[in-house]
Amino acid sequence: MKNNVSAPIFLASSILLLLQTLPGVKAGFSCDGSSFVSNSSYHKNRDSLFSTLSDKVITNGGFYNASIDGTRVLAFCRRDYERQGCIDCVQKSVQQIKTSCRNRVESFNCDSDPRDRVSCFVRTTNSSTYGQLELGPATIDPSGAAIDRATKNITLFRQEWDAMVDRTLEVATTDNSTAVLKYFGAVRAEFTEFPNVYMMMQCTPDLTSGACKKCLQESVNYFKEQFWGRQGGGICRPSCVFRWEIYEFYGAFANAIRVPAPPRALIPRAQVISVTRLKGGIIAIFVVPIVINVLVFIGLIKAYNRIKRSNRKIKEQQGESGGQSMLRFDFGMILIATDDFSSENKIGQGGFGSVYKGNLPGGQEIAVKRLKQGSGQGDIEFKNEVLLLTRLQHRNLVKLLGYCNEGDEEILVYEFVPNSSLDNFIFDEEKRLLLTWDMRFTIIEGVARGLLYLHEDSQLRIIHRDLKASNILLDADMNPKISDFGMARLFNMDQTRAVTRKLVGTLGYMAPEYVKHRRFSVKTDVYSFGVVLLEMITGQSNKNYFEALGLPAYAWKCWVAGEAASIIDHVLCRNSTNKIMRFIHIGLLCVQENVAKRPTMSLVIQWLGSDTISIPLPTAAAFTMRLPVELHGTNASNQLAEAGAGASSLNKLTITELSPR
C-alpha cells in the first residue's frame, strides 16, 4: 500500500521538476524573449516604470498597466490585498525580475506563496497586451501532499471538486463588482471527505467575461491533467490566477461572495460502505424516503406562503407604476445599502443630486442617485420620470432598477456600472492610453446607437439635453451607457421640436439654437454628440478650448486650414489617419450652426459603419461658449467656471411647450 501511495507523489514531483526546466511553464518566474543591452533605452524605461510601480498599483486599485516608448510593465495584486502587503509583494517581484531576468525583454514573476499576506505578479514586455487573453507564460505551485487514495473516495472527491469549480467560475466571471479587479470568485465548500475546501479565481480587469472564463478554465484543466491528486495548488498566468487548498489561505475568503456548497455527487453510498454496515443501509432505505417526503411537504407549504406574500408585495409596488416591472425600495434598505450615504460610497455629483454606490443584502451592487431637496422635481414629476425610464430598455442606456420616495427623499436606484464615466478615462493622461482606437470607435458607436434608440426606436421620443462625457458610463467591457435623464424631455412621435422658457444643460455641449432661442429638438442631442465625438478624437476636454470659443470652433478652424490631422490625439498616432479624419468630418457635420444641415443619428450610424458612403462637406461650426443673456450678473463667473469644468449642469425647472409638426 505504501508503494502505491508513494508512486503518485514521486510522479508529481518528477513532473514539477521537469516543468521547471521548460519554457512558458515554471515555478515562480519566467524569463523569455530577446535580450537587451545594459543602459539601453529599454533598460532605462523599465527601471523608470519599476521605480513607481508599487505605488501606482495601489493608487489604481490593484491593477496597473503602463508603457514608455514600447516598454510595457503590468502589475497585479489579488483582490484581498492589504496596502502594505501589495507594495511589499510588487517590490519583491520587481527585485526577482531584476535578479533572475536581468537583461531579458520578457519577464513574468508571480508571488503566490500562501504564507504571504498577498499574492501578486509583475510582467514586462515590449508588445501591447491590454485587453488580450494571455495564457503564457504561466507559473505553477502544486502545493500540499498527495490525497491518500487508500482512505479517501477519490471519485466522489473529484465530482465534488468539479462542481466547486463550476460554482467558482460562475462567480468569478459574472461582472457585478467594482471597476477594478472585477473578476473575482472565492468559494468555501464542505466535501464528504474534507470538512472545508477553499477555491479562488481572479482575472485582470481588462479582459472580457468570456476571455476570463477561458483563462480560468485552461488553468483548471492544466491542473487536472498535470497535478491531480494533490491537496491544493495554483496556476498563475498574465491574465488570471487560480488556486485551491484544503485550508483557508490568507485573506481570500474574508470578504468573499458566499455561495452554497457544491451538491453531493450522486454516488450511492452502498458502493463505498463495508459489508458490516449493510444492515444500517437496509433500514435507511425505508426511513430516509419517509423523512424526505415529510421535509419536502413542509418545504412546499413554506414556499407557497412565501410566493403568495411576494406576489402581494409586487402588486403593491407596481400599483403606482402602471404595471411596469419597477421596484419601490424602502428608505431603510437604501440607508443600509449605502452605509447611511457615507462619503466613502459617494461616486458622483450631478446637478440634481449625488450618486452613491450601494450593496443590497443579496450582494447586488447598485448606484443610488439621491436627488437634492428642492431640486425642482415635485412628486408627480418624479413619478413621471420613473415611469419614463422604466419604459427605456437598451444596452447603451443605464438601466433603472427602482425608486424610493418617502417624505422629502426622492431616490433613483440604477444598475451599477463599474468603470465610472468616460471623462475619467478620456481626459486623464494615463488612463487615456488604455483607450485604443478600436475601443474609442466602440464607445462612439455605442453612444450613437443609444441616442438613436431615444430619438427613433423606443416607444417614445426622448431628447436627452445633457449629453456629455461625464454622463456616459462604461461597463466592465468598456461599452458605453448613457446616463442621467434628469433633464430629458418626452416628445410625441409626431412632434419634432419644442421651446422652453428656462435653460438647462451644460455650457459647451448645448447647441446654439438652444442657448440663444431656447429651441431644442433631436438635433440638439446631435450637436452634443458631435462635441463628445471630437473630444474622443482629440483626447481633450471642450473646456480646454474655452478661450477659443470651444472645441467645435477650433476643430472647424483647423479643418478650413487643411490642418485637421493636427488635433488627433497623439495616442492614436499609429492608427489610420484617413479613418480618424472621417470621424472628424462626421463630428463637424454634427456641430454645424445650421440645424437643418445636421444629420440625424440614423445617418450618423450609417456613416460610422462604412468607409465608402459619401458624406457632405461641413459648414461652419457653432460658437456656443459665449454666455447666455441671463447668466450675466453676480453669479456669472461661478456658473461659467462650473460649466467649463463640465462637472455641473444648469438645472432649472423647465416649462415645455410642445409644437406639433
From TrEMBL:
Domain Gnk2-homologous per the UniProt entry, residue ranges: 24-129, 142-249
Main location: membrane
CDD domains membership: Gnk2-like, STKc_IRAK
Any one GO CC term of the record: plasma membrane
One Pfam family matching this protein: Stress-antifung
Membrane topology: Single-pass membrane protein
UniProt lineage: Eukaryota, Viridiplantae, Streptophyta, Embryophyta, Tracheophyta
InterPro entries tied to this protein: GNK2, GNK2_sf, Kinase-like_dom_sf, Prot_kinase_dom, Protein_kinase_ATP_BS, Ser-Thr/Tyr_kinase_cat_dom, Ser/Thr_kinase_AS
Binding site for ATP: K369
Keyword vocabulary terms for this entry: ATP-binding, Glycoprotein, Kinase, Membrane, Nucleotide-binding, Phosphoprotein, Receptor, Repeat, Serine/threonine-protein kinase, Signal, Transferase, Transmembrane, Transmembrane helix
Signal peptide boundaries: 1-27
Molecular function in Gene Ontology: ATP binding; protein serine/threonine kinase activity
GO BP terms, alphabetized: response to abscisic acid
Protein name according to UniProt: Protein kinase domain-containing protein
Transmembrane regions: 281-304
Organism of provenance: Capsella rubella
Subcellular compartments: Membrane
Domain Protein kinase as annotated: residue spans: 341-613
